[in-house]
Specification:
Largest sheet: 8 strands, mixed
Number of helices: 10
Helix content: 25-40%
Strand order of the largest sheet: 1-2-15-3-4-5-6-7
Number of strands: 15
Oligomer: single chain
Radius of gyration: 21 Å
């Protein structure tokens, strides 16, 4: 039997009156279901993807600053040995269809999953043909495709790609391109932390990003992009908040055997600690490659990376979070939030006010020196 989601299993086995309390403990305040337009529902059925919609509850004395966020998780469409132009073209078509549904739902900011135009081939350590998926962040075919969608639908789009940096000799980066609702490229941000665990052989292709913690002022709020592995680093999350982010997207590609117990926790904890909304996006499905590859953990050679478990969700500064999308299907999660909550929760909990950044800045600086001594007290 297919295990689709924690939420589905809870609904199936827990009595309705108890489920209310279970969900309160697990997810915080109940998110209100959004009314999904009939045309969007029809499109999701026709194109075979899950469509969920929620509103994060908030009571404010200020005029609401409501923003509707869209997250897309998807499987690759063509097999990994298909010609690269065909793989990209089919993914463009697939995401274009789901983006149309997002527009029908009134989405203002839409984020795709990490390296969405390609299979997650960085596990293989093979350079060719995978580096041929790389393209310019400024004027590559994927950016031009997204610019058309942004302008057509008055929507900010976050497009994580494998970037070819022609300015610096054609080196590669794991990059998210942020495209304004006007269709202009607002900027790009690069992945700050690169994994070196198991099949995650990403440093074969690109190194740590050099763009720091950029926050983008959009027509719908201040947003940032914490790409994949960066979610394991609390200081990485913190710095986006220091620079004023109100929503931080975490486009990812991670598999069940490695990280699934951590997935529901990390982005939610970051939302609470930093007084902003977080959006966790994970690809879905199993991708099989033509040649076997080995891991850094002693496993026998294999041709697939494991199951990408989807489960994309949105978390709020008060700890509330939406249910997740399915573990096994393509999906679009639509979530309406009130950005006033960021300041409200900051005023309530005062985590930023009490953060003592000056103390930690001095201690961290000292810890990186060659002659650093731990502040360790021993019995005499």
């Amino acid at each position: 039997m297919e295990f689709a989601s924690v939420e589905e299993t809870l609904r199936k086995y827990i009595p309705e009156n108890e489920l209310v309390e279970v969900n309160r403990v697990l997810y915080g305040k109940p998110c209100r279901p959004l009314k999904i337009p009939d045309q969007a529902q029809s499109l999701s059925k026709d194109k075979i993807f899950e469509l969920q919609g929620y509103e994060v509850p908030n009571v404010s004395t200020q005029s609401p600053r409501k923003v509707t966020i869209g997250l897309i998780q998807n499987q690759i469409v063509a097999p990994t040995d298909a010609p690269i132009p065909d793989q990209i073209e089919k993914l463009h078509k697939r995401i274009g269809d789901i983006t149309e549904a997002a527009a029908l739902c009134g989405v203002n900011i839409l984020c795709f999953q990490e390296a969405w135009t390609m299979p997650f081939a960085f596990c293989t350590r093979e350079k060719i043909p995978w580096t041929d998926f790389a393209e310019s962040a400024e004027d590559g075919p994927t950016t031009k495709f997204c610019q058309q969608l942004s302008k057509k639908f008055n929507m900010v789009i976050i497009s994580p790609i494998l970037e070819r940096d022609s300015t610096h000799g054609g080196v590669l980066w794991n990059t998210a391109v942020v495209i304004s609702n006007t269709g202009s490229v607002l900027g790009k941000t690069r992945k700050n932390h690169i994994p070196r665990v198991g099949d995650f052989n990403e440093s074969t292709y690109y190194m740590e990003g050099d763009t720091g913690h950029r926050v983008f002022q959009t027509a719908f709020g201040k947003i940032a992009v914490n790409i994949c592995y960066g979610r394991h680093h609390p200081l990485n999350w913190m710095m986006y908040g220091v620079h004023g982010a109100e929503i931080v997207f975490n486009p990812s590609a991670t598999v069940g055997a490695l990280s699934e117990p951590m997935w529901p926790i990390e982005a939610r904890c970051a939302a609470i600690a930093n007084h902003y909304f977080t959006c966790a996006i994970n690809r879905v499905g199993t991708e099989t490659f033509p040649n076997e590859f080995t891991s850094g953990d002693g496993k026998a050679a294999h041709k697939d990376f494991g199951h990408f478990y989807g489960s994309s969700y949105v978390a709020a500064p008060d700890g509330t979070r939406t249910p997740g999308l399915c573990r096994t299907r393509d999906g679009l999660l639509v979530t309406t939030v009130d950005l006033n909550m960021c300041q409200q929760i900051s005023d309530k909990w005062c985590f930023r006010m009490t953060a003592r950044h000056d103390m930690y800045a001095d201690a961290l600086k000292e810890s990186t020196s060659h002659d650093f001594k731990q502040n360790l007290i021993k019995e005499k």
